[in-house]
């Protein structure tokens, strides 16, 4: 039985992160806006407002969450590139998912945002050299340093993770 909360499993940092992995992850990030658009473009309003699992977010909330999360991700990476070991600002994604813009706006608003955001993000990531990929930021809630290389992998996983949520919902409601 598939775990509906983590349908592709939890992110596991590889022991070695090589350039090929990074390029594959960047491709996932680059193509995400089109892939999520393909997943939601034919969903009805009822389907968009259906949770992908009991106690989970609706497809609408997932799309808007991806825009929120990925905006924060780009800012975190830019901070790591321009400051030495910056402490990033966490946010309450569970609370953000309950705000009116996330629960009520059409998904097209965030799909458009994701298209431009991911274009910029993928371009920036593709330009980084090995030294830049090793720059780090600190998450204050866990006190853990995360390299940009690791963050690229986490956010590629994040893209696939939420695509799987929407895909499973779409399959269940057909």
Secondary structure elements and their pairing?
Blueprint: H1 19-40, H2 45-48, H3 59-82, H4 93-96, H5 100-104, H6 107-127, H7 130-133, E1 136-139, E2 144-147, H8 148-172
Antiparallel strand pairs: 1-2
Helix content: 55-70%
Q: How are strands sequenced across the largest beta sheet? A: 1-2
- Number of continuous helical runs: 8
User: DSSP strand (E) fraction?
Assistant: under 5%
Kindly report the average pLDDT value: 95
Radius of gyration: 16 Å
H/E element sequence: HHHHHHHEEH
Give an overview in words:
- This protein is mainly α.
- It has eight helices and two strands, in the order αααααααββα.
Please sum up the structure shown:
By secondary structure, the chain is mostly helical. The protein has helices spanning 19-40, 45-48, 59-82, 93-96, 100-104, 107-127, 130-133, 148-172, and strands at 136-139, 144-147.
Question: What distinguishing features does this structure have?
Answer:
two-stranded antiparallel ribbon; 63% helix; single chain; 2 strands; 174 residues; mainly alpha
């Amino acid at each position: 039985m598939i775990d509906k909360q983590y349908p592709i499993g939890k992110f596991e940092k590889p022991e070695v992160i090589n350039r090929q992995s990074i390029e594959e992850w960047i491709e996932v990030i680059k193509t995400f806006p089109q892939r999520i658009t393909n997943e939601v473009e034919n969903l009805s309003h009822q389907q968009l407002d259906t949770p992908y699992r009991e106690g989970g977010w609706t497809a609408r909330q997932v799309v808007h969450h991806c825009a929120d999360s990925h905006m924060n991700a780009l800012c975190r990476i830019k901070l790591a590139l321009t400051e030495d070991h910056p402490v990033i600002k966490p946010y309450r994604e569970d609370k953000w998912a309950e705000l009116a813009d996330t629960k009520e706006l059409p998904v097209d608003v965030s799909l458009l945002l994701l298209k431009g955001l991911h274009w910029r993000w993928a371009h920036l990531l593709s330009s980084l050299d090995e030294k830049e990929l090793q720059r780090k930021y600190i998450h204050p809630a866990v006190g853990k340093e995360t390299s940009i290389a690791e963050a690229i992998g986490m956010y590629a996983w994040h893209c696939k993770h939420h695509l799987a949520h929407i895909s499973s919902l779409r399959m269940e409601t057909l």
